[in-house]
Each structure stands twice: as C-alpha cells, then as structure tokens.
Specification:
By secondary structure, the chain is of the alpha+beta class. It has a single domain, classed as Ribosome hibernation promotion factor-like (Double Stranded RNA Binding Domain, 2-Layer Sandwich), CATH 3.30.160.100. About 30% of the residues lie in helices and about 25% in strands. It is built from two helices and four strands. A four-stranded mixed β-sheet has the order 1-2-3-4, covered by helices on one side. The radius of gyration is 25 Å and the shape is elongated.
C-alpha cells in the first residue's frame, strides 16, 4: 500500500424515510349506533379512525365491533353520556367495555382506551400456556 487514502465524498445521499400508511392494515368491521344523542357524519368517521388506530393491531382476531352511544338523561344534563363498545373475538368470549361521562368526546376516548386494554388482556390469556396439573396426593 502506498499510504494514500481516498478522500471522503463531499455529499452522500440521505436515506429516505418510508411514510407510514394504513393501507396494509385490515379495517375493523364496526357498527356505530346512537340513541338519544346527535353525532355528525364527521364524528362517526373519526370514531371509525380511532377504532382502527386502537384495535387495528388485533384485527386478525376480531370478527366485529359495535359501538353504542347513548344519552341517558336527555336534555336535563349531568353525567349522562354512555359509550358501550362490544368486541366479538374469534374463538373467544366477547369483550364489553362501558364508560360514562358528561362529555361525548371524553366518554368515547375512555371507552376506546378501556376496550383496547380489555382486548389485549383477553388475547394474551389465549396465548398463555395452560397450567400443567401435577400429581396430587389424595391422602391429605
């Protein structure tokens, strides 16, 4: 070797970051039902997006989801907004989560967060190995 090194190039192209997209993610089949409250079409679309964001990772195990939003007291006010989310899982029992609050946005957000936790817990239980029952002595 003659001891000479090649110089560093003045400019190196930067690697492009891939954009994340939800095109490869399966959509969660959902039915939204509203009783006594009014929800716009845009709000329904937003609920579907939030469902896909929270439950999309479990879409392979979900058969269907139903979201029920209900105004219990009507125009009287108070803590009267209820959101009940039922998730039907394949080969498992259904998961039902209900939240209640005065604000519609808060009740939907807390119901979605609780449903995500409950579905995750249910699917993790399915993946756990069954406990082995050892030989028990009958002379006790």
């Amino acid at each position: 070797m003659d001891g000479k090194r090649s110089s560093f190039p003045g400019w190196i192209p930067r690697a492009f970051k891939q954009k994340s997209s939800l095109q490869g993610v399966r959509m969660v089949p959902a039915h939204i039902r509203v009783l006594g409250a009014t929800i716009s079409k845009d709000k329904r679309t937003e609920i579907r997006k939030q469902l896909n964001r929270k439950l999309g990772k479990f879409a392979h195990a979900i058969e269907r989801v139903s979201v029920r939003v209900k105004d219990i007291n009507g125009p009287r006010g108070g803590i009267d907004q209820v959101c009940r989310i039922k998730v039907v899982l394949s080969n498992l029992s259904s998961v039902v989560f209900e939240a209640q609050d005065a604000s519609l946005d808060v009740v939907i957000g807390s119901a979605l967060a609780g449903t995500e936790r409950a579905v995750r817990r249910s699917l993790q239980r399915r993946r756990m190995k069954p406990l082995k029952v050892g030989a028990r002595s009958s002379a006790a």
